[in-house]
């Protein structure tokens, strides 16, 4: 492949379910590699399995990619819609002698394999039609098979795994076109990648054996072979292949758990790829740094503590507008009601205080609870204990003192401090009843931050509700 050829990568999911976190990472690697080189990132929906492919799954995959922030070039390509083109290439191979018609029935193939097992031979099917004269063809259904080389080796020059060698005697004459005229997945992938101009195939290492078989189709057609990069799968914390027993495996589940998309991009990029000791970075750095040699050969392990650390970093770095967008996306994904105008107005000013400590968006919203609720507040049992007769009297005095205060932090603190001192109490002692009155809870942000976020009218109303 010419070094000056523009980079084209692709993500090619099967629409049979949600977007798996492993698929999301594969998409991210392809996106980073293309975007960092001014290339194209294409999307192909491999929907040839008509029984299992659904429009709902396709929509879920697109929504997952959009949430993750991975934009693709052009319209998504449907593999199923290219079936005529796939058949055309198979017949072209038939014409140039790199493929042949095979009339063997399933029963004959089963009998061949049974005999091979009984004799201790390889069960790799050797079609009797490979070199048959066309004059002997029966008037019967047939498949089109690849005329694969029987001798020598096929080498996958892999950018991650290194050179991986397959003996051609271990690779069969795979079917390209079934007897009903539909293409097989293995054949369709090659035709699509060629026609889409894909230069780099970055995918899971469970496709490594497929690469050897697919290379033989490229060679049969005289097409340029793309750069292959087969990345190790993601394992759970116990080192076993990631599955539902480890918890969340769908990208949508991470969105619903309140991990921001920027944090997921950062975390997934580091899941199996490294750039020195850099753990925390933004999109621009990831695009600049990402390269195939940085991908490790060993499976990556999901680590929720590390994900929380990355999440906390990105939440702390966000500007208010971006964070409000992330919160809106989280509430939508979690099936919660969107923020009202009043809630948004109260939340915005408090975000810089809350985001410094939050690890996830639900954690941030938990601290922002006071801004989400309306009067009359439901008071938690522990907070209610702080609202004794003396405390209610202090709240009454504070309400009066704040009626004409300029609504600044310094003035609010000064008023509270003055009333506290008149009762021989420090600020810490009157904070508990203030928390209870303002939030209905004993664990909250700073009482003065809450006052500033709620505004004078709402603050005084909440204090008045519990004043004695």
Automatic annotation (TrEMBL):
ATP binds at residue 244. It catalyses: tRNA(Glu) + L-glutamate + ATP = L-glutamyl-tRNA(Glu) + AMP + diphosphate. SUPFAM superfamilies: An anticodon-binding domain of class I aminoacyl-tRNA synthetases (SSF48163), Nucleotidylyl transferase (SSF52374). Residues 7-308 form the Glutamyl/glutaminyl-tRNA synthetase class Ib catalytic domain. Keywords: Aminoacyl-tRNA synthetase, ATP-binding, Cytoplasm, Ligase, Nucleotide-binding, Protein biosynthesis. The keyword Lipid metabolism does not apply. Its EC number is 6.1.1.17. A motif ('HIGH' region) lies at residues 13-23. A motif ('KMSKS' region) lies at residues 241-245. Gene3D superfamilies: 1.10.10.350, HUPs (3.40.50.620). GO terms for molecular function: glutamate-tRNA ligase activity. Residues 327-465 form the Aminoacyl-tRNA synthetase class I anticodon-binding domain. It holds the Pfam family tRNA-synt_1c. It is found in: Cytoplasm. PROSITE patterns: AA_TRNA_LIGASE_I (PS00178). The keyword Nucleotide-binding applies. Monomer. HAMAP family: Glu_tRNA_synth_type1. Catalyzes the attachment of glutamate to tRNA(Glu) in a two-step reaction: glutamate is first activated by ATP to form Glu-AMP and then transferred to the acceptor end of tRNA(Glu). Belongs to the class-I aminoacyl-tRNA synthetase family. Glutamate--tRNA ligase type 1 subfamily. This is Glutamate--tRNA ligase.
């Amino acid at each position: 492949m010419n070094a000056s050829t523009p980079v084209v990568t692709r993500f090619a999911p099967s629409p049979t379910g949600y977007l798996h976190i492993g698929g999301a990472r594969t998409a991210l690697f392809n996106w980073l590699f293309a975007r960092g080189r001014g290339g194209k990132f294409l999307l192909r929906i491999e929907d040839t399995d008509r029984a299992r492919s659904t429009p709902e799954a396709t929509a879920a995959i697109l929504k997952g990619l959009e949430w993750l922030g991975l934009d693709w070039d052009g319209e998504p390509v449907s593999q199923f819609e290219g079936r005529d083109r796939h058949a055309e290439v198979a017949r072209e191979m038939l014409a140039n002698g790199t493929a042949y018609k095979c009339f063997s029935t399933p029963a004959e193939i089963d009998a061949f394999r049974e005999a091979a097992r009984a004799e201790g031979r390889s069960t790799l099917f050797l079609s009797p039609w490979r070199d048959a004269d066309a004059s002997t063809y029966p008037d019967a259904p047939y498949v089109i098979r690849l005329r694969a080389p029987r001798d020598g080796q096929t080498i996958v020059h892999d950018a991650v795994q290194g050179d991986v060698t397959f003996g051609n005697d271990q690779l069969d004459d795979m079917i390209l076109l079934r007897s009903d005229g539909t293409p097989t997945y293995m054949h369709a992938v090659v035709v699509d990648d060629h026609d889409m101009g894909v230069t780099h195939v970055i995918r899971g290492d469970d496709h490594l054996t497929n690469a050897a078989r697919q290379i033989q189709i490229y060679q049969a057609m005289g097409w340029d072979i793309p750069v292959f990069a087969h990345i190790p799968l993601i394992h759970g914390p116990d080192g076993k292949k990631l599955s539902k027993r480890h918890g969340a495996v769908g990208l949508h589940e991470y969105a619903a758990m309140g991990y921001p998309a920027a944090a997921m991009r950062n975390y997934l990029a580091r899941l199996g790829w490294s750039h020195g000791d850099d753990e925390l970075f933004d999109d621009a750095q990831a695009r600049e740094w990402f390269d195939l040699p940085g991908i490790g050969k060993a499976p990556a392990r999901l680590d929720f503590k590390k994900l929380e650390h990355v999440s906390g970093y990105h939440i702390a770095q966000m500007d208010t507008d971006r964070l409000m967008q992330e919160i809106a996306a989280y509430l939508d994904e979690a099936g919660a009601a969107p923020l009202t105008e009043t809630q948004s107005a109260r939340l915005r000013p408090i975000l810089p205080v809350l985001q410094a400590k939050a690890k996830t968006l639900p954690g941030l919203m938990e601290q922002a609870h006071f801004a989400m609720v309306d009067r009359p507040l439901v008071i938690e049992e522990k907070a209610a204990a702080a609202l004794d007769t003396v405390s209610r009297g202090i709240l009454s005095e504070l309400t009066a003192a704040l009626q004409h205060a300029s609504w600044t932090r310094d003035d609010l603190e000064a008023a509270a401090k003055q009333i506290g001192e008149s009762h021989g109490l420090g600020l810490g002692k009157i904070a508990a009843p203030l928390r209870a009155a303002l939030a209905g809870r004993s664990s909250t942000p700073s009482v003065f931050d809450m006052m500033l976020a709620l505004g004078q009218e709402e603050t005084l109303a909440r204090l008045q509700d519990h004043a004695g």
